[in-house]
Design a protein that fits this description.
Blueprint lengths: L3 H11 L13 H19 L7 E5 L13 E4 L6 E6 L13 E3 L2 E4 L6 E5 L9 H20 L2 H12 L9 H11 L5 H5 L1 H8 L10
């Protein structure tokens, strides 16, 4: 079972550094991890709508209208690390809204209630699937390599392992593998959006056609 300490220690081990038992133990490694970990985790959960760390909620509308530009404003959920989509209703065939804005703790758009947000949330390390944990450990090693080891080549090595080389535009490596594994936890888009295609899938006619 993973924990914050075990994820951090695995990353430190990759760098040949001392592991930690606590973020507050006062060692150099623990201090560096303490400085970087929270921001690092927020970034990891904001890169992609991971199936195990994504929520959808109906937004709470403010009773007052925005000052300009948009007709309605809603409360941004406290848990939301990154808002990936806004939907114009709670119905099965709800459309995504592209004309919205986020201002501090507000979500602004031109759609009246109900409006639904899909966003990423922090999940404790013991709930991480293996594909995400492996990616996160290597990405964390890349993040802390320079402050821990003062070795830029080591930082580059683990960054490439986590995200791929320059040609992949940070969408390769273990990140791509994790996204592929995570996408297989979800039904294909054609299945969700078209009842005729969905029926054919259930009858075996197009099985596997839209898989990642």
């Amino acid at each position: 079972m993973s924990s914050r300490e075990s994820i951090a220690s695995q990353a430190l081990s990759l760098l040949g550094a001392n592991t930690i038992l606590s973020f507050d133990e006062g060692t150099n490694e623990a201090n560096i991890i303490n400085d970087h970990y929270d921001q690092f985790i927020r970034n990891m959960f904001s890169l992609y709508p991971w199936s195990f760390a994504t929520k959808k909620v109906t937004l709470e509308q403010y009773t007052t209208d925005p000052l300009n530009e948009y007709k309605f404003q809603y409360v941004r959920p406290d848990q939301a690390l990154y808002i990936f989509k806004i939907f114009d209703s709670i119905s099965y065939y709800a459309d995504t809204i592209v004309d919205f804005d986020i201002l501090e703790d507000l979500i602004l758009c031109n759609y009246d209630n109900p409006v639904v947000a899909q966003y990423s949330v922090y999940k404790e390390e013991n709930l991480w699937p293996g594909y995400f944990a492996e990616f996160a450990v290597n990405a964390l090693a890349a993040t802390i390599a320079i402050p821990v080891t003062h070795n830029a080549e080591l930082a580059s090595l683990y960054d490439t392992k986590a995200f791929g080389d320059q040609r992949s535009v940070r969408k390769g490596g273990l990140f791509a593998r994790a996204v592929g594994a995570d996408s297989r936890q979800k039904p294909p888009i054609a299945l969700r959006g078209n009842p005729i295609i969905s029926s054919r899938y259930r009858n075996g006619g197009f099985f596997g056609l839209c898989q990642y």
